[in-house]
Amino acid sequence: MGTSSMYSGPKDNKLLPDDYLEADNGEEKKKMPDDDKKIDPDAWKKAKNAMSKYINAKNGNRQNVIRKYASANGGSSKMAKNSTSGIKGVSGLGGLLNRISSVGFENTLREYKIDYRNKSVNSIFSEFINILSPNANTKEEVAGRDALIETLTELYEMIEKTGEDITYFDKLDDSKFNFIMNKYIENYIFAKFLNDLEYRAEKYARSIDSVIQKEKNIKDFINYSVNNATKDINFKSFNYSDLDAIEKIYRDCYKIWEDE
User: Fold this and answer.
1) What sign results for the dihedral spanned by CA atoms 8, 14, 15, 17?
2) I need a labelling partner for 225 at 20 to 30 A (CA). Which of 59, 69, 71, 251 fits?
3) Cα separations (Å) of 91 from 46, 102, 203, 247, 251?
4) Pick from 2-16, 100-114, 150-164: least confident
5) Which of 232, 250, 141 is nearest to 195 (CA)?
């Protein structure tokens, strides 16, 4: 996913709210998703087998994969609660965008001591990644960091295509806010889904076109579930310090997976 080679090296999490940092003091290390999987290894085996059959079969059953994955995770509430990096990613990225919206792009960079002179948007985004997601030591952290990389990569490609450069951030309206935040949530859920199922597209390279289409079907479903869960949310005025509210977004997304 994405162009991860343009991001490297950890930095201080200065963009994150205080309660965000307090929530991270060792909690994620103590409670990793893999620990939950040990509760019902047979359920995870069924989920992985369903994914393998879906990718290999001519007309694979996407619904079966989604339902078995949700079941193996213990349902929507547990899935949301365990989405620690995804919750923190929304809090951190949303907080950063709010700051840019309040004081401007260049002022935000100066405020957080990011040297932006003669640097491309690509390089500046690299700084954002390392500030918002400095660690990737667990599968959960990897999913959160992958989602940030993918989201900012897609945003960079869009900005480059339109020729807006940093002028894109001159006016972060409701539409831009919702687009970026929805894209992050989608990318996180997809990254977590692939990591949890230990899925690698290279295993099915002989039918790469079919694999791409099957992945697109999964992504389309994730896009639908996220858009449905956030349809009444204005991310520009959202309280990114309210981690319970962010968890609810994920819970609403995953509730659709249970009913698939």
Assistant:
1) positive
2) 59
3) 33, 16, 35, 10, 16
4) 2-16
5) 141
Q: What is the pLDDT of residues 229-260, one digit of tens each?
A: 999 999 999 999 999 999 999 999 999 998 87
- What gap in Å lies between CA 162 and CA 90, rounded to an integer? 25
The Cα 105–Cα 111 span in angstroms is 10
Spatial separation of the C-alpha atoms in residues 17 and 22, rounded to whole Å: 9
- What is the residue whose two structure tokens read 């997304």? 253
Query: Which pTM value belongs to this model?
Result: 0.84
Mark residue 74 as left, alpha or beta (left: phi above 0; alpha: psi -120 to 50; beta: remaining).
left
Q: What's residue 113's pLDDT?
A: 83
Helix then strand count (H, E) for the chain reads: 13, 0
Amino acid identity, residue 22?
Answer: E
Identify the residue whose tokens are 């079941």: 71
